[in-house]
Amino acid sequence: MADFLLELRCEEIPARMQAGARAELEKLFRRELDAAGVAVGELTIWSTPRRLALIARGLPLATEAMSEEAKGPPEGAPDAAIDGFCKKNGVTREQLELRDVKGRMTWFAVIEKPGRAVGDVLAAAIPAIIRDFSWSKSMRWGAASISTDSIRWVRPLSGIVALLDGEVVACEVGGIAAGAATRGHRFHHDGEITIGSADDYAEKLRACHVIVDHEERAAIIREGAAKAAAEAGLTLVADEGLVIENAGLTEWPVPLLGRFDEAFLDVPPEVIQLTARVNQKYFVCEDAGGALANAFVCTANIDPIDASVVVDGNRKVLAARLSDARFFWEQDQKTPLAEHANKLSRITFHEKLGTVADKVERVAKLARWLVEEDVVIPAKAGIALDPGANSKTIPASAGMTKEELADLAEAAARLCKADLVTEMVGEFPELQGLMGGYYAAKEGLPVEVSDAIRDHYKPVGQGDDVPTAPVTVAVSLADKLDTLFGFFCWGMTPTGSKDPFALRRAAIGVVQLLTVNQIRLSLCDAVDVGAWRFVYARVLEDFDYQQAFLKKHFDQEALEDEYFADWFERSENGLWSYAHEGARDEGLALLDFFADRLKVQQREAGVRHDLIDAVFALGGEDDLVRLLARVHALQAFVTTEDGANLLAGYKRAANILKKEDWQGIEGEIARTGEEDPLAMVDDPDLAPVIAAKMADRHAAASTLSYTPEPAEKALIDALDTAEPGVRGAIESEDFDFAMRMLASLRAPIDRFFEEVTVNADEAKKRAARLDLLARFRDAVHRVADFSRIEG
Fold first, then answer.
1. Helices 664-671, 763-781: crossing angle, 10 deg rounding
2. Cis peptide before 459 (omega within 30 of 0)
3. pLDDT above 60: residue 571
4. Cα 63 to chain center, whole Å?
5. Residue 274 dihedral angles phi and psi, to the nearest 5°
6. Could you tell me which residues are beta bridge partners of residue 183?
7. Is pLDDT above 70 for 459?
8. Helices 572-604 and 470-489, packing angle to 10 deg
């Protein structure tokens, strides 16, 4: 067995590309050796800014002889076809074999491949790996770059080390021959280093100030930065992404702590941290009180003789960056947010959805509606009914009415996107929302407004904080609902893995806002209002947009009709009626989208997807809080013995009804043609009379004409008790009690199947018992569609 070392050396592999490069190197190496029949075990792969390294241990010294077969043309094929097949596979006609393939004699070539030395396999594999290597960005270089056949690499390839048990694997790529020599640290070691084998590679480089293991460098940075901060009485702000990035930028990392001018602390801490992180790759620190300190930790790529010189140079660079940030901070405050918001009409949100100003108008109206309809004021928020005012109000200590909350929500919505045109967000787009909150607070706007502006993008994803303040929730919900409805309205929905407008994230955000805050919102109502806001804000105010919207939703021939076009041009009511109907169709698709997102989110929370399907299948349930309460109660029930047995009884009953194609007593009356002819009379005055007569007939048909067996009577009595109990529990949303009512049916249905013959010889008995099973099935369906439950 042999050990193999491969090092590919170049200049400055970007840190963000190194993880992908390591994975690519492993994939290509395994591909080449697998194709040659060489078994590859565990690989060690490292990266630094200047090299990729791979170590494969326990490789065989030679491959085993192999025999391959190739299927050729059938017997009797033209000579040219047979000769071409022979040439392709390197055999003669005499070496071909005839075999029967589905009754037809066919030529086969058996190709014997002798074993090869693994060194020869590696010599062929290395050029293939380099030529096939995929970089997100790559380049050609030198005189050879005039040809598209020249190799591409992330930076000019400068050296290859290829050693198999200490022997050089002879190969050449792009004029670079493999050898045993590499180079150490750019500043700490001059000249070449000769590597003896895979065993001494890492240690020889370490002696020359190169730590080749990226994970070891990351640990040095992580621990060293924390230690440097602690020695200064500070706490490092953890940032694992920055640790990995610094590990990808250095070969000999040395964390150093420095200080910047305290005057910069007037700038929001998020700005300072982002400036240090994005522009300079520095860590920041906090003092004992948790406030941002005027300290940073940089990662030097050398072991400095005088660390203060390195720190001072980094401090000067950071000071320049912070000066720019402070300038943006001060400059933006000279213009009120309301004036910034006026510039949003210059920014296109989407060509079919208007400008950002148009979106803000829709969001403001929708946010106000959410407050006025008591949607975002859950009971736990401290809102109580004031009989005198006949409206919900904040407790007297807060001194705020629902109308005032609605005004705040609308005001916050109108300013929530204003920071998009500020200098600070232009420099750091990651700070959108956050900076608007700071600017609003500096203006002296109500805290509810500044908080809503700051947090209205939340939650951004799973694990993000979910807002709970009513004004913030109103703006956040309105913003996400408007985005979802707008894109769905134009059919720009996610397809497969593509979601360019992050609509899945927006839908999950809506689900989280509703469930965390226990908000009782009918999504049908929200979509309906969203449709109205969208159509009103854009269609009724812009004739060109009217035409584009109508062409999407209505027949072109109708649109070209002179009367139709004239009527739409003159009639706002008519335009609203037709456009709103088109918008509602897209809203229904959006409801299905919400259902899918809810299933994804709850699956991650441990809720079974089949139970969510079982409740959704009932239809008409668009209140997510109520729906999830029902699902949770159902999951608790079906995991019990009663639940499992009731599910088995349900499936047995459902299978019998399906096999018999049972339509119920009313269905049987209709099937036998016994319906009263009066039922066909289209006269509203006769409808009550006809309904009464038909009810009498159905009641008579369902009355038992025989004495039921004890087990049958027990099931009837249990249903008489359970049905109203389940119905009342569902209406009062006491889903645990509904499950207990269902549990009471478990013993009677088990006994019924044990003691009663459903398909009795007597037709009336058979019909009554089938209808009893249908009644049992329908009682269960008041809670969920048990046919969707697995098990």
1. 130
2. yes
3. no
4. 45
5. -70, -40
6. 192
7. yes
8. 110
